[in-house]
Records
---
Amino acid sequence: MTPLPEALEKFVKAYHGNQNLVNEQAGWDCAIVLVASDSKESVALQIENGRVDKIGTELEEVDLVITSNHEVLLDILELRRDPNEPYMFGELTIQGPEDHFMRLDYVMTVLCPV
Amino acid sequence: MTTQQKIPKLKTAGTAAAGRRRPQRQPGVGALLAAGSGTAMASVCAIGLFHIERLVGGLWSVAAVCIGGAICAVLARIFGRLSNVIPSGAALLAFVSRGLNRRLGVALVSPYLLMMLFLVGFEALIVGALIARMAPIPTPVGALLFLVGTWLVCRSGLQIGYRAQAFSTWTLFIALVGLSIMAMFHAADQGELSSRLLTQAPSLSSFIAAVGQALFLFMGFELVTSHAEVATKQAVSKALWGSVIVLTLFYGTVSLGFSCLDNPPAQGHGLYVPQLAIAEQAGGQGVIVMVALICVLASFSSFNGALLALSRFSYALAVQGVLPRPLAKMDPRTLTARAALAALLGLALAFTLLVYFFSLYEASIFSAAISAALVYAVATLTAERPPFRATERLGIRRVASLLLALGLIALAIGVIVDAGEDRISTILLLICAYAAALYAAWRTGRTHKKAPINVPTPSLKKTMASP
């Protein structure tokens, strides 16, 4: 099974590859951790001024915690699924202010168009 | 490189923020209590309460409210358990989808949300009537101004904060409870208090209908669970209980006030706003204007939150193809689903016209009460299924849950039985709501997956790395 950091790095590459999208997120700072509820794996990323500045696991505090099972997180990071779907049906939960999730959701929707 | 490490904790107020944004303060029990109670304390609920009081009278209406409150207290525990397991802003849909399946989730929860939107039409007319007491503006025009004005605020991305919600909730509580107590003193001064409160016992079917309608008064209290993403589990559970207690006290007291109104209208009176009547009885134009302003503010804060939440819900369903794809657009600057907001405004306007021209005042309350009873029954049954079911639960508790669900269904039937001349329009409204829900459920397919993105795999690094 693809490790989460590998999938996350692919996602970041895709995101940074869309310069217009990155520019739209200027001013957005957010620390996010993705937690796989079944395998207990986690991976974090730090966004500074709209760009992903760091990826890894060494963050003490975050703005957003996203929890789901490993397969769903991989599907989302590899842009096979929109995060709204598992979220609406209770397969993905978030903790943290709604505006961070709305912005992340917007980014995902642009990268993974319907 | 994934490791089973300690999960980083969420930033809270007072923590040093990394970056430009200050971490938002987590809402406490008080803020959630105001939000949960305020959502349920809509102006339309005063009309529903007035109808209960006219149906069974005096202390019997208080008894109906208290029984409704007791049922909701049990439901508060159930919703607390559901939210503990799945702390999701998608709330009811997430719970039922996980407990049953997605299509059943959409089919069983959507009618409740549709009826909430339908009630917005009724609420808008009440606001129009309130505005008409303050300014020479016809009721339908006032309703239109309310809907469009709230929509414009939502479109800008502005959502009423917890403090503003708390202010409007507690102001409404104090105003109407205060006026109700004054009305009781007024009746006592006239020597009529006991005759107003100690009324003849209603028929069993009327009392059951009154209890079923009382559920409508609490409709929306469970939306406290939608704050689970920003609040602690303990705060959500306490706020659920607290909302039920606050609402029971509020409606019980205001019901007594309605019993002490001097000249209540007869049945079939069209749009009658009892909170204005009680204000008029208590004092002059100043009191009426004050109550009208407070009620409009409360309605605005509730509708603002509801419209934004429903727009995001509609947007999410549109992304999945359940609703038309043009609604799946998010404005990048305000992060609002503007297309969905516009569609909801259109629906709200249409519902307002329907309620106004077809006098669907009581039918909308009855159908909302029925949809609430049914969705609460579904939530009760969902709580007994994995992943929510506590394995150590005694069999007798599961039987009790089943009985509660059946009781809620019986209450829904009781509302229909006692609906009188509004029965047909009530049933028609429910048929429309459930038909739309079944269509949406049919369009809710299984998971849609696309091909993965084709990006060269970078080399993995062991520590925090810059991409």
Note: The beta strands of chain A are 30-36, 42-48, 51-56, 61-62, 64-68, 92-95.
---
Amino acid sequence: MELMSGRVRSWGFVPDREQRFVKPSWVPARLSLNSEFNTVLPYGNGRSYGDSCLNGEGVLIDTRLLDRFIKFDEETGVLTGEPGLKLTDVLDLVVRKGWFFPVCPGTSYVTLGGALANDVHGKNHHRDGTLGRHVLRIKLLRSDGNSIECSPKENPELFGATIGGLGLTGLITEVSIQLIPIRSSSMTVRFDLFTGLDAFAKLSARRKEQFQYTVAWLDCANSGTKFARGVFISANHSDLALAQDVIKHERGKDLNIPFNFPSKCLNTYSIQAFNNLYYAKHLRLDKRIIKQHYREYFFPLDGLSNWNRIYGGNGFHQYQFVVPLGRMDVMEEVLRYIVDSGLGSFLAVLKEFGSLQSPGILSFPREGWCLALDFSDRGEQTKRLIFRINELVMKGGGAVYPAKDRIMTRETFERSFDRISEFLPHTDKKFSSDFWKRVHG
Amino acid sequence: MDKKTVVIFGATSAVSQAVCRRLLDSGIHNSFCLIARDAARLEAVAHDLTVRGAKTQVIVSDLADIGSHEELVANVKNGNTFWFFYGSLPDQALAETDWDETEAALFTNFMSCASLLTRIAQTLEERPSTGSSIVVVSSVAGERGRKSNYVYGTAKGALSLFCQGLRNRLHQSGVHVLTVKPGFIDTPMTADIAKTPSVLWASPEKIASVMVSAFEQKKDVIYAPWFWRYILLVIKLIPESIFKKLSL
């Protein structure tokens, strides 16, 4: 494996520096790590926002050429593949055969390895839990030369450490996942406008019984009568047989943001204006049901390449946290704080997580209310805002999501994940990340 | 092997993998005979294509071993299109002092290909015109001898010339011969080479896209990507008295 160097960034653009990496074309039989490598970290498609996918002192193992399908059983829906296989390519293959990926995050441009390492969740968390619950088997390559098979029955502790383990237990070389059966590539989607977090909670309680997928877009910029208003979007896979019901998805219409916007583009006024427009656009859809192609429902931003450039060269902070069900008051307090600061973004997503347990030790999603949003990076101002919110979330008994973070402290990490001591024995000492150095040392 | 089979010499090459996926995507080609010498890697490639919907057959063979060619070609001669992806990049500096390095480069990149092409051409001439094709990956390195890589350049240059002759000979048999001349491609073969200037380096997917397009349009000779045609035009126009002093 040739050691190379280049500018590797995560989705949030920060940190932005030279990073050494290797890019194997074939799944390695052993990891030949000499001392100049220092530590290593597997790297997928770099859609993590922060530094959990970077290793400045060491070397990244770019897995994107390890993108081969190994096996797919069309009767049972069991898919086995190399870790660099992207969700978008999996869906291109399996949907027309009546299968769907069991848990889809917000973008289809993630690798199987990356999705597993973050134990991703989706709009169906309340029904199906995280991706970890659907993983049948993992093959893991460790720095000591061993290739270990893990599953819920075989080496279950290592299995639990690897799911959501942020790449710190070794290099995943093979993944087997149980897909879910579907009958159509389209989704039946219902919209409900709401104002206020109580209204949201009531809606969520009703819709989660009726729909497999639920999520709400929330306005984090406006106050007064517009405070905490949003659009609740629920969906099910359409019931009509595949042959009858095909909405074509025009991939050719994908747009691209060709360069970074000037950083002043996104300010309180432009975001408020955007939010007003977004809400208004949905007025005519209130209480209505429409059909959407699955790509439009699950991955609306995938059609806008490099949307992270809208935040300008300074990048942005993505922030996601969860608070327990009984603590909607904390969510309200955090929301007021964000609105008052004027630093919130237009891509705020609110969701109720269910109680299904993941096998992952460091799994982020737990029963409660979850909010994800962006903050333009205004340096110290943004950092202070985030730290203040961290405090509120910690006091409320909640947790912050590492996949989105680049500044959380060791304390926040330890309070978010109470099983860290169970995780530690399974880490591979030759694997590390910028995130891990920051929260663990 | 069915009559529409795509026969791939060097199926573990990065460009080959990209081309096979693209051919399969087109919906027209779904039967592949994959040939390479590393059995495990060949199997990985075959499984991937199979899951994607192809019928695949694998043959493990060291293509530099001319002694095995008669049997190999006998096994694949019913195929419809024949693609040549395999090759090796010699260490030019070493080749200048070590004949074995030079010989291996000339042998693998030219002689062994010529052997296979000779046998395949004969087979194709003997059967009625079925619209078959031969696609050979040569290189822009074969367009002019440069001190930095003339051993590789010689092999590829000879290969291009050989294909040109074949194109002429096989035209009346209705066989399409396409010579592909890529510039720099980012693959394991070029792993040691610094990828600058980056604008000149293409991904295997980009090359595959150009190749498959040209194949479908039955072109004769293409440069991949297109701009190499003009770069080489300029290079070939430089008078020898000047070129011999340059360090390109």
Note: Residues 242-246 of chain A have pLDDT under 50 and may be disordered.
---
Amino acid sequence: MNWTGRIRAALPAADPDVAEELAQHARAMYDAARAEGAADEEAQRTVDAQIDCWRADAALLRRRARHPRIVDPPAAPATAWVGGLAQDVRHAVRLLRRQPHVALLVILVMAVGIGATTSLSAVAYGVLMKPLPWPDSDRLVSVRETRGGRSPRFGSVSNAAYLAWREETSTVEDLAGWSAQMVTISGAGEPERIRIVRATASLFRVIGARPAAGVLFGDDDERTNVAVVSESLWRQRFGGDPAAIGRRITLDAETFTVVGVMPDALAFPDRQTRAWVPMHVAPAAGNLLSMFEGLAKLRPGVAPEQAAAEGTARGRFAPDTGMTTMAIFGGTGPVEIAAVPYLDTIAGEVRRPLIVLIGAVLLLMAIATVNVAALQLARAASRRRELAIRAALGATAGNVVRQLVAESLLLAVLGGAAGIGLAWLLQGAAWSVLPADFPRVAEIGINGRIVLFGTALSMLTGVVFGLLPALRVRRPNLVASLAEDGTSPVSAGTRTGIARARGLAVAAQVAIASVLLVSALLLGRTFMELLQADRGYDAASVLSTALPLPMHTPERRTALLADLVERLAAHPAIEHAAFASETPLTPGGSTASFSLPPQDAAGGAIQVQASPRLVSPSYFAALGLRVLAGRPLAETDTPTSQPVVVVNDTFRRRYLDSDPLGAQIPMGFWGEEQNAAATIVGVVEDVRHIGAATPTLPELYFSSRQLPSGMRSGVATLLVRSRSDTASTRAVVHGIVRAAEPGAAVGPVVTLEERLLATSLARPRLYAILLAAFAAVALLVAGAGLFGVLSYSVSQRTRELGVRAAFGATRADLVALVLRQGIEVTVAGLAAGLLASLWLGRFLASLLYGVTPLDIVTYLAAPLILLAIAAVACIAPALRAARLDPVTALRS
Amino acid sequence: MLTPYMATDQLARELKRGSTELLVLALLEERDRHGYEIARLIEGRSAGAISFHVASLYPTLYRMEDRDLIQGRWIEKTGQRRRRYYRITAAGRKVLASQRSTWQAFFEALSRVARIRHA
């Protein structure tokens, strides 16, 4: 019996559900009647009577309002949640494939953020946190000596203090001394400049090194010419042959026998050291004070301060070395020893800049996250209908949130993977981007820990930028969503919660971008100030190169150099050529101490600590140093004429009140045979070491023509002032030097400016470039966010704008309306960002030079730049608003 | 709402409508039921005194469903056609409780005035 058919025939307009329900009722009635004994026709008649009653009831004929079908969900097993998540992920993949441009944008933004963060984390970890490669490296401390609070000009501990402490130690297991130098290696290959370390045998015990082959030299070898080579040198020059043990090498005209190979992993202080030779620490007798680096290993459980106290106490027993102490420390006083954990010694000075950079990169990450969150919010808003249907089909709020978070997590993980890949590719670039003297560059790399960190970060950001929008749309009202039409009634641009949230997101991005912009401007200005600072010499057109001449006697060296300089000066491309015993840019260098007679009757002898340099007469002309008084050195100063000296301005200001010209400087520090005194004939401008930790020191310039024996340094610096462009002159210099000294391992010919950029300016430049890059990305992202919000707003307000246009608003008015919205958001973000910058500026203070954290120019330029970018971002939406056809707009 | 001025027919209709809802809610309070079951029970339990017009049952059920007093669902059991079962909602329980107390008060007032006692 087809009851459903009969009901439908009787009540054709009835709802199918109603029909089905009534049909069941009819069936039940029929079955009950039959069960009570009624015949088939009788039972049917009973039911037909009922159907007639229903037909007469108009209420039944009405179409029923649709209630959402509520189907009981099956009992959820434990794996249902996982299955649900997997389904959400599949759905997310489908969704993203339908909107690839959105997905790509999000992945790109995330990749940039995660890539930058991961790269910098790798640097920070490798430099600041990764343990040093030697066993128990946390017990290694560097030993630093001061006298009367003054640090030495070079080295960190004197032989006097070192030996005094070594006699009896209870806080440290052992003490070692070492000093690095550049030498020319020959034998078993081409001559090459390499770095070696002269060290006491105790160094190997202190660091706990074991040889890869052969042996490491011991205490008995300290006066012998043995050498331990690095693994890389062993492979390069000896092909890794075990028979290399016992072979000979020449280091700066001295022959050494190879006794062992140091594994590269344990190379001290770093992998750039290619060989170790013994250093004997002589007692401090008479005026002999030698300085070197000190290293100690604390006994377990001993704090550095305890060791320092012991060192200080023992150091007090060191013999007094009079003038030499004065020369090296700039004063006399009791010995004070400090023990600094070795990791701090190497990485300490980059800690603050690295922290600043990490802060900057985290801000960049925040911008990326906020930007993507705003994007996701807009997408979620446009999917209200879909989400409402999902909810109607039985999805709980938690399900909706899970779906949105799954989509965001997918994007974040993809972006994170791209970012980590980017960081991995960039890690090779770290070697070239970081300055040569940046500590622990070899330890920087993307390892498992860093990858884990990057992955965790991308998942966290995924959850954050997924959760925020999800929480806003998790309770969609189906009826309202389906009934609404897209262009809602007119009102101001920030009426809906979602639009408000997006506006806030853009303001936040603008704020963060302005913080980064201010920092970038401050560091950029610092770098420019450093570059353009008046150093006293012309850095751009002066070429310099290091010429090692270890194999010659000092007199022979001087003669060679004089001849070379003459050849160079004869070349038409070269204006001046000179040589010096030291590079003008080295703040360290040799030091001497002597007494000057009292300036007036009442005063006592003046103790002088100054840096003497041996230079050729054309030195000042080549460098472009201004002569402030008297005359420079000249060719007329010969070995037989009156010995003369030129001093720098700092020397004059510190030691000579009255007219300096004519004052006598003793020359005893050049050697015992120099009993004469030199007359000051001129005062030159200071060579300033801008930005370096050491201030300008008093300097004395002696003529090489008058002191041929003075060229004791094995390496001379050649200086050439070029007439024309430096590029061609470089080749000329190289050619002439090679021709004169074919066997010398000449260094690269670079301008002084390039040398600066590679040394003292390297880090300021790096920081400025990095911050500028972050700021540029931040501005781009914030600008894109602003553009997105305004475009959305214009499309939402199409009808409103149409109404305004219809009522007489001009194009300019409409443009102004949109621009005002954009400017409001920008100004809000800018104000917050500038306030934050004012507060955060103090963390930058140690990195700045020539500008203060509250630099007016910066705080005027940053808002202008930001507003300009905002204006650009606003143009397209504003023009779209201006080009609206009111009729079309009202109809839409 | 009952006022003394209503005509008797209207009063009877109102009473019936109000009572039908009360009856449905009370029956569903015990457990979920489908429409035919509700109809049979009302006839059976009232011992025929409430001559229940089945035709009006379903409009009542639908009305109550629109007012969220009850909730109808299609339940499919193995081997059977699906049937529409009704369940009382939380709102329905509240209305049931309030209607019960209203009827209670009504009866008490009646008995006080007319000395009618209920079983």
Note: Residues 34 and 85 of chain B are 4 Å apart (CA to CA).
---
Amino acid sequence: MAKIIKNEYYPGVYKNYFRKLFTKNMVLGKKVYNENLVSDGNVEYRTWDCSKSKLGAALANGIKFIGFKEGDIILYLGASTGTTVSHVSDIVGQNGCIFALDVSPTTTQDLVFLAEDRKNIVPILADANNPLSYVHKVSQVDFLFQDIAQKNQVEIFLNNMVFLHKGAYGMLSLKCRSVDVTKKPSQVFKQVLEELKKKVEVVDFKSLEPFERDHYMFLIRKNY
Amino acid sequence: MKYMYSSVLSTYLFDENFSIVKEKRIQNPIELDKGLWTQEEKALIAANKNEKIIFVGQKKEKIQGVEFTNDENVINKVLKASKNNFDEHFSITIKITKKKISESFSKEFFIVQTINAITELEKSINLLSKRVREMYSVYAPEVEKKLSDNDSFVRMIITKDKSELFKELNISESMGASVPKEDIDSVLELANCIYKLIQEKIKKEQYLEQIVLIVAPNLTAICDAKIASKLIAIAGSLRKLAFFPAGTIQTLGAEKALFEHLKNKANPPKYGVIMGHPLVMNAPIKEKGKMARRLANKILIAVKVDYFNHDNNTIGYELKEKLEKSN
């Protein structure tokens, strides 16, 4: 097995010679979604499967920076069963916290089980369309991540910017076919880029090929 | 003018510069999560009656003198100014989430699961029947060829002997082998399992008719229980079905043809799941599309009555009569 070293661009993420990504396992010996566990001396790493995680695909394709670090508070919209949330939880560590939102009760059940192992996840059953319905459960955050496949995903993202500190970063995973299936994906991408530029500063964007088709990841910064 | 905000731990009152004036610990955060006014909030509002209060959050009822705001600036400052004891905040929020999950059960969940179970039972019965037919053909191929329906085939070979079957079906000569007892017993055991699956499928269909009648009586009056539950299953819930336009209901279940039409300029589909309805099946070929459109329009009315006005369960029959008369 190739030796695992730190990834110099993204603190908290590790890599090996074959360009696979890893994070340090917070709960030794336990798998979250049947990934590979690798031991290197006393430290255990979990393989980050980039075909199952939009954030992993963006990092593998070289997005400028990851936007959050150890100890941060994160708002994660569209957490689903917690595959990407578990890696974010590894990076953020015991001093950080993730508010993991999802609208479906059956997937939030898996999040609750994940939160029992790792003490830094707070699962919330709420609709991201309506930030005022969960304003009493969350606090101000250092990073906003969204992976929701709905027609109005950009509107949801901009509505939830209210929870970000000024000068903080956010990531939006865009699924072009959900926004409008009849238009070409490059057209939808341009439209969304214009819409985002009006309100926030777009730092970087990357296509998620070959892991996903017609998906883009935007890295933005809140300047107001 | 004062600002007010409640987190799951306590409720805060701020002045115009967003410094905390009063803070009260909340005893019942689950009540807060449901959108009701808690005792502590009502007490703070009553103590400041002569001032205008702006509240950050969502409530089901209004109180005189209290306004709600959507202003991002206000929400930002109010969140910054409220202190947070993180450990307690987390454990209370997780408790609220667990309670919410346990209360999100609805009868529609079982409708969707049951219709999917019936589809899977049908597939399993077909798949295993093919296997039994192949095995039995070595023993009595003429019997297997004459009984083309899976249900009757399985029932007959379990209950009757080879010679009885030959007499009933008027077979004189046979090219079947004389298979030893243990081998033919193994085949008949598998046929027994299929028979039990068929009985289970019939039970599930009867159970499905009962529960769809409770949830959507008018919809089951127009189409039968199977089509009604398939429509609910594809839409996800009765609420989503009630907010669809009629054109979507007409083509629910024909998504592949629909997207080919939207993206690649193919011909649009005329009907989806509602193709199985007798009115559409028995219509002449040139009228099938029109019948599907009329049926989808009436189905939408019935679904809306079911979702919004549950007391009315006669409109389904009236709509069906209208459709059959105009035919």
Note: The two ends of chain A are 47 Å apart (CA to CA).
